[in-house]
């Protein structure tokens, strides 16, 4: 009888044998969760997105367009971390330490436990970690760091993969909370290999229009919390600050009601934001009139215009220019804003001012029906908190259907656009 000499499976022509693990497997109930407890960063809106703060040993990838404010935000986080009693290290591969110092001085984020270094070599970065022994590492950016033992240029697929894998390994080994800044491509995706997002624990997107002060940090992946949270910030000359209640940025206060405006409640992740939609109906033109949008989906606007033209009376839009926009730089593309867009356009076209304390929530179908959308109770609660007294919602979304009442608010279910216009006119007269 011939005994087999194989001790394990064959992989790539080699026999893989078992070996003693570094740490034996233990029952899950005997494992402590204390080492994975998040530590607040001191920046409330970022903590909201992270799920409470930064976990020691966790690696966070923060991606965003150039100039949106990534370095500014993370410099504030590093200062707050240092003020909490643990050293923080900011390594910049794009700026000199003097440039970073100037920004920190302008922001008022100087601290004795906040260390700066300008490096583009991975070995030098590891040397700084040995010397400083920080609790937080901010690397700006991962595409600028290279390691001599790996082929390719800095920012290339091979280099980014190798650098990230090494930083993840050392973060886990030393329990260093690590934030990597990442570049994005022209279509808004994280630059580099897709495996980069798989290696890290958290992926955040930093969004914002350079012409607006509003900035948003959106969670895309989070192993320690919800992956659909959104944090709101305001950029100003002195740096960046958290916006715990950003809805005021997306509303315009009028002395008298103005035609062509309607308010809706948009959902950004789990967050309800009361947002104003404005529409201007231009002059009649020959040929193809312009349809211009800002902050809205142009395709959905075109659909809403077609529905209004077909399903309502006294409203002619096919030969008139239409301009529609949101207030405050927020982008609203969800179907729940359809009803507000329709009312704003009808209000502008009929020169009928809508009640300033009215919110409209619902998707509009091609037959003019108003369809249900998600998170209506949460949207109504936010509108009621800000003092809105009337709400138009899809069928099945009112208090009698959901059992959730909005305090001091009259909620009316509307079946179609025509009914919504009639109720809006009634509320305006009250």
Describe the structure using short key phrases.
single chain, 430 residues, alpha/beta, Rossmann fold, Ribosomal Protein S5, domain 2, 2 domains, nine-stranded mixed β-sheet, four-stranded mixed β-sheet
Indicate the mean pLDDT: 90
Low-confidence stretches: 1-6
Oligomer designation: single chain
User: Describe the biggest sheet?
Assistant: 9 strands, mixed
Q: Give the number of domains.
A: 2
**Percentage of residues in DSSP E strands:** 15-25%
CATH topology of the largest domain: Rossmann fold
Rg result: 27 Å
**Number of helical elements:** 11
Can you give a write-up of this model?
With 430 residues, the chain is an alpha/beta fold. The protein folds into 2 domains: 38-244, Rossmann fold (3-Layer(aba) Sandwich); 249-429, 2-Layer Sandwich (Ribosomal Protein S5, domain 2). Helix content is 28%, strand content 25%. Helix 7 packs across helix 8 (338-350). The longest helix has 18 residues, at 157-174. It is elongated and about 75 Å long. The model is unreliable at 1-6 (pLDDT under 50).
């Amino acid at each position: 009888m011939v005994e087999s000499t194989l001790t394990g499976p064959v992989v790539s022509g080699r026999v893989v044998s078992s070996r003693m693990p570094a740490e034996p497997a233990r029952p899950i109930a005997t494992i402590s969760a204390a080492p994975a407890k998040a530590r607040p960063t001191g920046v409330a809106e970022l903590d909201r997105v992270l799920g409470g703060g930064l976990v020691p040993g966790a690696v966070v990838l923060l991606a965003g367009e150039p100039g949106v404010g990534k370095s500014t935000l993370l410099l504030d986080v590093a200062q707050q971390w240092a003020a909490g009693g643990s050293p923080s290290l900011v390594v910049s591969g794009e700026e000199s330490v003097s440039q970073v110092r100037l920004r920190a001085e302008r922001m008022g984020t100087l601290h004795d436990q906040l260390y700066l270094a300008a490096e583009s070599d991975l070995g030098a970065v590891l040397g700084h970690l040995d010397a400083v022994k920080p609790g937080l590492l901010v690397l700006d950016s991962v595409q600028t760091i290279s390691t001599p033992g790996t082929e390719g240029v800095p920012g290339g697929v091979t280099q980014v993969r190798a650098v990230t894998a090494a930083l993840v390994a050392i973060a886990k080994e030393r329990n260093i909370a690590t934030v990597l800044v990442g570049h994005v491509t022209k279509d808004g995706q994280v630059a580099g290999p897709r495996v980069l997002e798989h290696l890290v624990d958290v992926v955040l997107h930093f969004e914002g229009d350079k012409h607006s002060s509003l900035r948003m940090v959106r969670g895309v992946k989070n192993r320690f919390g919800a992956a659909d949270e959104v944090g709101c910030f305001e950029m100003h000359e002195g740096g960046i600050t958290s916006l715990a209640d950003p809805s005021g940025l997306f509303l315009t206060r009028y002395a008298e009601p103005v035609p062509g405006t309607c308010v809706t409640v948009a959902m950004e992740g789990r967050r309800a934001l009361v947002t104003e939609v404005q529409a201007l109906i231009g002059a009649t033109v020959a040929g193809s009139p312009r349809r211009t949008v800002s902050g809205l989906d142009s395709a959905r606007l075109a659909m809403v215009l077609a529905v209004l033209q077909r399903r309502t009376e006294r409203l002619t839009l096919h030969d008139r220019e239409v301009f529609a926009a949101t207030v405050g730089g927020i982008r609203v593309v969800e179907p729940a804003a359809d009803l507000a867009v329709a009312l704003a356009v009808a209000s502008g076209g009929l020169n009928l001012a809508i009640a300033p304390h009215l919110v409209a929530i619902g998707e509009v179908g091609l037959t003019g029906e108003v369809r249900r959308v998600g998170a209506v109770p949460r949207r109504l609660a936010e509108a009621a908190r800000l003092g809105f007294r009337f709400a138009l919602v899809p069928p099945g979304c009112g208090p009698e259907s959901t059992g959730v009442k909005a305090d001091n608010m009259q909620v009316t279910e509307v079946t179609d656009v025509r009914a919504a216009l009639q109720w809006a006119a009634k509320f305006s007269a009250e």
